[in-house]
Structures are given as C-alpha cells and as structure tokens.
Design brief:
24% strand; 14 helices; Protein-Tyrosine Phosphatase, Chain A; 6-stranded mixed β-sheet; alpha/beta; UDP-N-acetylmuramoyl-L-alanine:D-glutamate ligase
C-alpha cells in the first residue's frame, strides 16, 4: 500500500501520536520522550520482551500486540512509522485510507528534538555507537546539557536517549534506509552542522548492492553539509579522504598519519585497564590523558571525539579531561561476569573489521578482571546479520581472528532464507582458521556451542562473545554453566 507523500509532514499541532513498531530501541526512546512532553502516546508491535516491554510499561505507554487497523482508532494527530514496518502491513493500509499525517523515525527525531539546535552526526561503517556516546558523555561531563540518541545503552545514566536543554544534539547517523517509503539513509534527515565520518566499507547487503552504493550514501551526507559546518574525517583511510575531497565545508582529519590535524601519537595499556593516550592538536599542543576504553580503534574514536568537542565549543584540555568520566556502552567490550575462573565479555562486533579490531584490543589491552598473558583469549562468534549470513566476507573473516587462541563459531541462524550457493559457512571458516594455525570449531547451534565452550574453557581464560543479536542468551547460560561445572 502506498502512502500519500503530501501527508508525510508534521502537523502544526500534535497532541496524540501512534508509533508503528514501537518496540525498537530508538522508537521506544522516542515514545518515552514524546510522552514526557505531555503528548498522548500509544503504539503497536509484535509481542515484546524485556527490556523494551518493561521500559514502555514503566512509561505507561499502551502497546497493542500485533498490527491491526483498529489500532488507529481513535485517529491520532500523527503516526510515526518505524523502519521495521513493511508496505503490506495492515496498519499501513489503514493509515493510507484514513489520510493521517505520518513521519519516519528520523523525520520525527529531527522535527521534535534536533531542529533549532547544533546537530552533531556520527556516521561511518564502524565506531558510530561508541563515538556518539563519547561525544554525548563529554558534553554531559562538561555541563552543557546536550540531547542525544545513541544506538546502544550508555552505562552513564542507563539511557540511549536524552532530550536535554542545551545547544547541542548528538545523534548516531545510521546509513540504513529510513523507511519503506523513504530509501534514503537515515542520516540525511539530521542536517548536521558537525559531521564525523569514521570509515567507509561495504555492509548492509540487504539494501546496498555493492561498495559503490555505500559510497553514494556517504556522498549524500557530505554533499548536504552547510558551508558554515565542519566534517571530522578519518584521515588514515584513502576511502574516507575520497568521500570528503569535494566537501562544501572545512574538513578536519584525525588519525595517526602526519596529514591529520588531530593526530593520535600513542595509545598504551593503562595499569588498571583502559589506555593512556597522547594526542596532538592542530595548534601543536600535546594532550596526555586517560581513557577507560581499550584498543587502538577506540583511541581513534576518542581522538575524533576530541575534535568534535572542540568544534562544539570546548577547549582541547577540557575535551581531554572529560574522557576519564566515560562509562562505556553496553555490548561494547562489556564484562558480563566471571565464573569458574573465566571472564565472559559481550561485544556487538559482527563485521570482519570490527571482529579483528575488537580481538586485537582485548589481546593487547585486556579488560576489567583479565590482563593479557594471564590466560587464553577465546572467541565465540555468531554470524547473524543479513550481510554476514551471506558469503560476502567468507574469506575476510579468515583473517579476523588471528589474535584469538581458540575460536568457536555458530552456523548462521535463519540461513535457510539465503540461497544455498550464497550462504556463509562457519564450517568452512573453521577449516580456514585451522589452516592458519588458529584452533577453531564450528557448531550447529548455540546449544552445541555452549557445550563446546564448557568443555574447552579453563580457569584464567577470557571468553569474548560476539554477535549483533542476543545469541540465545549465551552469555548468561555460559556463566551459569561455568559456576556449576
């Protein structure tokens, strides 16, 4: 069912809102924020589970189970259509017949929370969530009262959304498409004054045909920058430099190379975890400071954050000082617990580059409760995304696990929806890893993988579990199994 594009607007007066697909993390955060503004908010989704079901219940936001035309009665002033909603959804047909105004999530965020503020947008294939959270945390710690939307739950305050009353709004700029009726990247709606571009690689095979399509998306972001704006770009990447070479505004490069105005001079493991960093500013000042984040990739994220905070009005010394107060983001090198002498860590890594950098960071810097050299680094990986379930990165993954002492792989869940000749194979990856001297084992499902981990782990090990999904609660099940074996 098609929607009338003339109704893709925000009404002048909005008292009631219905959110289709309210159970997503960002949609739920938007619902809560609109409720706090005094609007009547309701929504619909398939059956929800904690934490979003709990969050919405605590906010006293009614949620209809399933999608039904009756959910649009009485008619709301505005409908927000989530990215999960497809054209054939029965509520879409009802929305079309009722001729109600509608917005996508990015449009609603821009309309109600970003408009009139300094928009700071973090984009790129990797590092978006951590870098967005770093900037938001830095502005919070500096007392500027920012608003933000982060693609993960920040440990600082246990939130991913904050309206704030300050000048700035910091948002994670996802390159995924906006909605079924708007196939542009989400970040085009956020109209950045300050934009960060961390990296450009192929991803999201379900919506991008190839790397050129991904490039065009990021070119769209660069091309819409105002002349008064600034782009902060990873200068060590030739791909990123090509994307910003015709930018209509100043570009500040960050990285390790001499051509970077914000230069990461060194990142060394700190005594009690995290990193001791040295960063040189465009003015030639050398900043020495502590970051609670491990790994060179996080040191680069932090360097980009310093540049963004200075673009937002902080001085360099203050931008460095507030880094120590960063509390991290859930599912990014998050220590879930320890049992039987084994430390269990959860991470969102799923792209080969992210897997490689995360393993390298933990192997060199360690995590809370585990220091390098004190035991083995064991990796457990679930290829769950639409891209990783396909064979695009079959060979690339073989070089992503070199920092691990042992690797356990799950065969991709839901792979039956992918043509057999296009499927990723964990068994083939295990064979390739063993050929490289990295001991690896492929398992049919999470139950088999859990049994293999319980048989293979020993005291002193760190088990790093990587997936962009829940991995069938493997983390908690592993901790319980380790405690009782």
């Amino acid at each position: 069912m098609d929607l009338d594009p003339q109704l893709n607007i925000a009404p002048r007066e909005v008292k009631s809102v219905h959110l289709m697909g309210i159970g997503g993390v960002a949609m739920g955060a938007l619902a809560g924020a609109l409720k706090r503004r005094g609007l009547l908010v309701r929504g619909s989704d398939n059956p929800l589970y904690p934490p979003m079901s709990t969050f919405l219940a605590e906010q006293n936001i009614p949620v209809a189970g399933g999608y039904d035309p009756a959910n649009l009665s009485p008619p709301p002033d505005l409908v927000v259509v989530g990215n999960v909603i497809r054209r054939d959804n029965p509520e879409v047909a009802a929305l079309s017949r009722a001729r109600l105004p509608y917005l996508s999530l990015p449009q609603a965020l821009a309309e109600f929370f970003i408009k009139g503020r300094t928009s700071i947008v973090v984009a790129g294939t990797h590092g978006k969530t951590t870098t967005t959270a770093l900037i938001a945390s830095g502005l919070l710690n500096a007392g500027t009262d920012p608003g933000f939307l982060v693609g993960g739950i920040m440990n600082q305050g246990g939130q991913n959304f904050r309206e704030g009353r300050g000048e700035h709004f910091v948002v994670e700029g996802d390159e995924y498409d906006t909605a079924f009726f708007d196939k542009r990247p989400k970040f085009v709606h956020y109209l950045p004054d300050i934009a960060l571009l961390t990296s450009v690689e192929f991803d999201h095979a379900d919506i991008y045909a190839d790397l050129d399509a991904v490039r065009r998306a990021f070119d769209m972001l660069v091309g819409q920058m105002p002349a008064r704006g600034v782009i902060i770009a990873w200068g060590d990447s030739a791909e990123v430099r090509r994307r910003v070479r015709e930018a209509p505004c100043p570009v500040w490069f960050y990285g390790k190379g001499d051509g970077c105005q914000w230069r990461l001079a060194s990142a060394e493991p700190a005594k009690d975890g995290g990193a001791s960093l040295r960063v040189r500013t465009p003015a030639g000042e050398e900043l020495r400071f502590y970051s609670p984040l491990a790994g060179e990739h996080n040191a680069l994220n932090t360097t980009a954050c310093l540049a963004a905070l200075c673009a937002a009005g902080l001085d360099a010394a203050q931008a460095a000082e507030v880094q120590a107060g960063f509390g991290g983001v859930k599912r990014r090198q998050e220590v879930r617990g320890a049992a039987g002498g084994v430390v269990v860590v959860d991470d969102f890594a799923h792209h080969p580059t992210a897997v490689r950098e995360t393993l390298a960071a933990v192997a060199r810097f360690g995590v809370r409760g585990w220091r390098p050299g004190g035991g083995r680094l064991i990796a457990a990986f679930e290829p769950r995304t639409n891209t990783s379930k396909r064979g695009f990165f079959q060979e690339d993954y073989a070089g992503a696990f070199d920092a691990a002492d042992m690797v356990f792989l799950r065969e991709p869940p839901g792979v039956d929806e992918v043509p057999e000749e296009d499927r990723f194979s964990s068994a083939r990856l295990a064979q390739a890893l063993n050929g490289r001297g990295v001991q690896a084992q492929a398992c049919s499902d999470s139950d088999a993988l859990l049994a293999a981990l319980l048989a293979g782990l020993r005291p002193g090990d760190l088990c790093l579990i990587m997936s962009n999904g829940g991995f069938d609660n493997l983390h908690q099940r592993l901790l319980e199994g380790l405690a009782t074996r």
